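User: Batch of two.

Assistant: Item 1 of 2:
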Amino acid sequence: MTEAAAADGTLRRGPHRHRLGRNLAEEVAACLLGGHGMPYETGLAAFHAVRDAGLLTRGADESELERVLRTPLDVSGRTVHYRFPAQRARWLAAALRYVCTQRPPTTSHELRDWLLPVVGIGPKTAGWIVRNHLGSDDVAIIDVHVLRAGTDAGVFDPAWRPTVDYPRLEAFFLAWAGQGRVRAADLDAVIWSERAHAARIPGRRAAVE
């Protein structure tokens, strides 16, 4: 597979087509401000707001980050308020200090493990950062959409939970992609795009969930 579905349903091409940021610090910010139940478009708008304010640096001020995150966001013409601005500002300031003052590993699993001590970054978010930044197919992003799709397809045991079974879920997901001869990063992106968009169509939510 040489294409991946973007959040707006378009197709992107290239070795790093999943990237949201221009460097690792920006990728960490984009993924940290998204996820955790945050609508994708809202997280992306928040990321663009803090990036445009010039705050994604090693000396990012937590209060300035919070000020920007408390400012209403324009999301597809709607005014949206970002949830938990104080918490996310605190997490992001600490993450930027960590990422910008050390030399990160360059291999997928080492980079993911290096990110895990950062508050607010668990295996899913770390895998998301690594997948995007390195264009890696060696990690998986086991979010609710992938978990449900894998369970529906009979790939995952319904009893498995990301909080305790993440390595097992990741291994089975990567094997699933290999069996289908598709890139793991692209399989993840397509599942996320299809199921996330289907959940927003009236009458299809129940089928997706």
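Item 2 of 2:
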Amino acid sequence: MSNDLVSIAERLDQAILTATATPQLPKGSEIDAPTGYAVQAHGIELRKARGERVIGVKMGLTSRAKMEQVGVDEVTWGRLTDAMRREEGGTLARTDFIHPRAEPEVAFILGRRLTGEVSLAEAALAVEALAPAVEIIDSRYENFRFALGDVVADNSSSAAFFLGPRAKPDTDIANLGIVLSIDGAPREIGSSAAILGHPLRALVAAARMTARAGHVLEPGDIVLAGAATAAVPLQVGMQVEARIQHLGRVGFSVV
């Protein structure tokens, strides 16, 4: 990787460590998605060098609402590490982030390896459990503005996540009601059908897209299917809860 790309990865990593926004890439220096994934991989190596462990992936921009909210039009993916997981029912420290937003998601926990060109049926057979989840996204760029390659380089804006209780893997998730509440009042309402028409399609995409980068989804990995609603900006004092029909709830407070 060129020194320029390494410097981008290091700059984004410092933005994470210091919770300080970094400027967008200047005009004429934008990177495409494949280059963004190379930068993302280097950034994850920096985290691994600090002792973090990759425990899964997140899919991004899997709903029209999300694509419109951030102004891009292609599904993306990023890595999840153990340091990004927060305790369900616990707290999220606002000062650890730049401009965090919460979005409700369907999570898959895998029971077997899944990689490459797989069918919906093969993806379903790899699922050991389902769970409600909330992902915290936090673009490291100023004003939460970026192009596609930029956001990919930034680990697809993934910052943290909360995972709720496990549900049976054969639960029908085709069209589940999803509610994201703030302080007990519904803020965003959606359906799991907004996730590529069916959340399992996000898992199929995860197997295919990660394989291109030489990354294999292993047993025990967590895969976040992507948001079914727009994300909600977080402020200190908020009580956040996501409820997904038939899967349960997951919540936390912002401190």
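DSSP finds six helices and 13 strands in the chain.
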